[in-house]
Specification:
The complex is a heterodimer of chains A (about 350) and B (about 400). Chain A has 15 helices and 4 strands. Chain A has helices at about 1-30, 40-55, 80-85, 90-95, 100-120, 130-155, 170-175, 185-210, 210-220, 225-230, 235-255, 265-280, 285-300, 305-310, 315-330, and strands at about 60-70, 75-80, 170, 185. Chain B contains 18 helices and 6 strands. Chain B has helices spanning about 5-20, 20-25, 45-65, 75-90, 95-115, 120-140, 145-150, 195-220, 220-230, 230-235, 240-265, 280-290, 300-315, 320-325, 330-340, 350-360, 365-380, 380-390, and strands spanning about 155, 175, 180, 185-190, 190-195, 270.
Chain lengths: ~350, ~400
């Protein structure tokens, strides 16, 4: 029993990332009808927002400290971040320490802007082109974004630690009545799961309870009629594209401490997220979230040694295998709507 | 000739001539001249032109004719390479059994994947093929290690059986004694031309499969495939089932990819799983689109273009740029070099991505369409049409 709970927990953090990216993909697909291969790149950009903020915050100046000597007998040079200098030791170091959560505030406007520019500058011109063209141009864009990041940040993963408070692990088993040291789970992954649950909830609430969301949902169902009612639906869809980009970006920001960001992390997640979208059902938001968590958990179960000893290699292919089976037996996916992407 | 119309025969003859003369044509600058770095007439690069040309021609039969965008063709490339290396390990370094096996195995593999994937179309098809290719890639890396040698890549070791290997046979890939990596070098004036066995082997195969694809394009089967791209629903209504045709196209293009993979291993007796990764599938898509999907020559041009510039751009560095722009004032020179720096050397992929985006946005027909447009502009074909249009009565304004 404890092994099962542990695997479910292990699946949750990856599942959260899948769910967030797939949610963004589905938002874009459901509103604009565009297949966005650059969505993984947006996730990666989010992670690099965290890296960038961390670098900005730790910009330092060097002073010579005459009271201390280094091993050559010269005055010791001490690097002091400007932040520490301005806000004092305690506050400054706390800000530095919390750079990843702070990056959320930094990433939201940046990602909204990137999404807005991307839609207005490029995607807009591809609504009437075939899906193959959309895939190709966004694929090209993904390569470009990836290479630009590689140019500025190098090819190596950049460690981006979580705040000290969340390092280490929580003995999750004790909380729910198991013996000690049975279910150990890193704090940050728990935070990640809760964070993604909040984001997913916020997106759904936004679509469900605001007028803006209502119009967007109406536009997803029948774009033309909404347009005929005198509502500028294109403008709202553009904003939705920005929101989808922000969701992917936030998923990336918070993922940075789990996996040090490198320039191709987006591509790795992209393929899987597409599979998730297809399994969940093209155009279905709840389907994307459900499939994301489901596949994340399935993946972690498949990587248990007991399972691997029965079917070797299953952990590598389980997601693809599930996708193939689902596509062949339930072509619309788990919760796909009728009439979306059916040729 | 050979079942081709007169125009096509001329076209084929030109292609044959160009292919066979490549070692001379791609060496336009004398050795030791400043422009020698733009030469492409060395065996390794030319072989890649031919091999990726074959890969792209095959991909074009599927994507160009039927419009089904596969994102998993690299799987067949990898399978082809593995087959050939296994034949080296078991029999001998003769490439022929390996190539035959590569084509057969990739055909079977394509039949399996195609049968499943082609039940869906559009983006679902792309994702299914992508899923299959990623599955093969992951398996090749992990469980199938006894078959693929995992991360190290499959290669021939001294303790392999190699049952057909006799004392005198060559110890690198060969075709009945013609060793692939041997070449004849001829010096003419300042020029040096390299005629490599490997290149000619690939080139002759490339010509053969090009001819085959020409026949497919012109055949009733090819027209059927185009019909699938144009309007599948209408095809259904006329009582034709498109699936056998698409499946045949998928298998044929898989065989092309397998052959290309086999040739890669014939030139260099190695096979690694990274050949199966989806970025490799993306590359062949790039080649086909860049050259012009659905045209005969386009994919080959695209493959050549990408491989050539990959090679050239990766070699250029800041020093070379400085010598180019040394005539300019210092400040301007530095500024230009600074601006160009991200696009050269290791930044080649950035250039490729940008180029690819520009092609998809402005020139969906690829280089071939670009060529046609320029040709029309030069010969004035479009202008004539416009003049004709002017003769039609102009639409009258609103009646008051």
């Amino acid at each position: 029993m404890d092994a099962i709970i542990l695997q479910v927990l292990n699946g949750l953090d990856k599942g959260s990332a899948y769910a967030l990216i797939a949610l963004g993909l589905t938002l874009i697909f459901g509103t604009l009808g565009v297949v966005n291969f650059a969505h993984g790149a947006l996730f990666m950009l989010g992670a690099f927002c965290a890296v960038t903020l961390q670098r900005i915050l730790s910009l330092s100046f060097t002073v010579e400290d005459p009271t201390q000597k280094d091993f050559l007998g010269n005055p010791l040079k001490v690097d002091t971040p400007y932040i520490v200098n301005w806000f004092g030791d305690a506050t400054g170091n706390a800000i530095l320490n919390w750079s990843v959560p702070l990056a959320i505030l930094f990433a939201i406007p940046v990602m909204l802007l990137i999404g807005y520019v991307m839609e207005r500058g490029l995607i807009k011109h591809f609504y009437k082109r075939p899906h193959a063209d959309q895939i190709l141009v966004t694929f090209g864009l993904a390569i470009v974004i990836q290479e630009i990041v590689k140019y500025f940040y190098g090819a190596n993963p950049i460690p981006t630690p979580a705040p000290d408070m969340f390092r280490g692990s929580v003995d999750f088993g004790v909380m729910i009545g198991f013996a000690e040291n049975q279910i150990i789970y890193p704090y940050w992954r728990l935070v990640y799961f809760l964070f993604s649950a909040v984001i997913i909830g916020a997106v759904f609430a936004f679509l469900r309870f605001t007028t803006f969301g209502m119009v967007v949902r109406a536009g997803m169902a029948d774009r033309e009629t909404v347009g005929l009612l005198g509502i500028n639906i294109d403008k709202r869809f553009t904003i939705m594209f920005g929101i989808a980009a922000a969701v992917a970006g936030l998923a990336g920001v918070m993922y940075a401490p789990i996996n040090s960001p490198n320039y191709h992390m987006g591509m790795d997640f992209l393929v899987l997220s597409f599979v998730v979208v297809v399994v969940g059902g093209m155009g279905s938001l709840p389907g994307a979230v459900l499939a994301g968590f489901l596949l994340g958990i399935l993946e972690s179960f498949a990587s248990m040694n007991e399972v691997k000893s029965i079917i070797p290699g299953i952990d590598q292919i389980i997601i693809y295998l599930v996708a193939i089976i689902i596509l062949l037996t339930r072509p619309r996916g788990l919760m796909g709507r009728r009439g979306v992407m059916e040729e | 000739m050979l079942g081709l119309s007169k125009k096509d025969t001329t076209f084929l003859l030109i292609v044959i001539f160009l292919t066979l003369a490549t070692p001379i044509l791609l060496q336009p600058f004398p050795e030791n001249s400043a422009l020698a770095q733009f030469n492409a007439g060395y065996p390794d690069l030319m072989q890649r032109f031919a091999i990726f040309g074959i890969f792209a021609i095959g991909f074009n039969i599927l994507f160009g004719l039927t419009g089904y965008l596969s994102f998993g063709h690299a799987a067949f490339l990898g399978v082809g390479s593995y087959s050939v290396v296994w034949m080296y390990k078991l029999l001998s370094y003769n490439v022929l059994p390996g190539l035959i096996l590569a084509v057969i195995v990739s055909a079977l593999f394509a039949l399996l994947i195609g049968y499943v994937s082609l039940r869906r179309s559009g983006i679902y098809f792309s994702i299914l093929t992508l899923a299959f290719a990623q599955m093969s890639f992951n398996l090749a890396y992990s469980v199938l290690t006894p078959l693929t040698n995992g991360e190290t890549g499959l290669q021939v070791y001294t303790d392999d059986p190699q049952v057909l290997m006799s004392a005198g046979s060559p110890t690198s890939p060969h075709l009945f004694g013609i060793v692939m990596n041997e070449s004849a070098k001829i010096d003419v004036g300042g020029w040096q031309f390299t005629f490599s066995n490997g290149y000619y082997f690939c080139a002759i195969i490339a010509i053969l499969v090009f001819y085959l694809s020409m026949r497919i394009f012109r055949s009733p089967f090819g027209i059927m495939l185009r019909a699938i791209k144009t309007n599948q629903t209408r095809m259904n209504y006329t009582g034709l089932n498109p699936r056998p045709y698409t499946l045949a196209a998928f298998v044929i293009s898989g065989m092309y990819a397998g052959l290309a993979g086999g040739l890669l291993a014939s030139m260099d007796p190695l096979a690694g799983a990274e050949r199966m990764q989806w970025t490799a599938s993306g590359e062949v898509v790039l080649m086909t689109i860049l050259g012009g999907a659905g045209t005969l020559m386009g994919p080959v041009l695209g493959a050549g273009f990408i491989k050539y510039f990959e090679n050239i751009f990766s070699k250029i560095n800041d020093n070379i740029l400085h010598t180019w722009f040394s005539a300019l004032p210092d400040g301007l020179e530095d500024a230009i070099v600074f601006l160009l720096h991200p696009f050269i050397g290791k930044g080649w992929h950035l250039t490729l991505g940008l180029l690819f985006m520009l092609v998809v946005i402005f020139l969906p027909g690829g280089l071939m369409e670009g060529g046609t447009r320029i040709w029309n502009a030069v010969t004035g074909k479009n202008r004539k049409k416009k003049n004709n249009a002017d003769h039609h009565p102009k639409p009258s304004g609103h009646v008051n």
